[in-house]
Design brief:
Layout: H1 20-25, H2 27-35, H3 39-47, H4 49-55, H5 60-68, H6 71-76, H7 81-90, H8 95-103, H9 107-119
Helix pairs in contact: 2-7, 3-4, 8-9
Length: 120
């Protein structure tokens, strides 16, 4: 339910809003990342990344973001951080690592920001 006077489509610099349009755009990418819940799929990806991406129907923007290991580009290509965490985990990246990338700080600085916010 919308609140009067609240803009749900506000532009937040440096942030990609995950809405219905982005969910549709990223469906194949998110479906592929969800598959990484199973070790067999993680192994299959490691053995043949291109073939695995093709199997899930990723578009070229998504494939290039995967090739570049660019989590922020994956988000811009429709990736949902909760699904991308599965992909990031393959490369030993945590959600805090991704948050740091998004905010342009180190992982330790990002963790400190979280702690500071929790203290308020």
């Amino acid at each position: 339910m919308d609140q009067p006077g609240f803009d749900y489509h506000i532009d937040i610099p440096g942030t990609t809003i995950f809405d219905g349009k982005m969910a549709m755009k990223g469906y194949a990418l998110n479906k592929m990342c969800y598959a990484f819940n199973q070790k067999a799929n993680r192994d299959a990806f490691a053995a043949d990344e291109e073939g695995f991406m093709e199997q899930y129907g990723l578009n070229e923007e998504q494939k290039q973001a995967i090739r570049d290991r660019d989590i922020l580009a994956m988000i811009e290509a429709g990736g949902n951080i909760y699904y991308l965490a599965k992909f990031a985990g393959i490369f030993k990246l945590s959600v805090q690592d991704v948050g740091a990338m998004q905010t342009g700080v180190t992982t330790e600085e990002f963790k400190q920001k979280l702690l500071d916010a929790a203290d308020q």
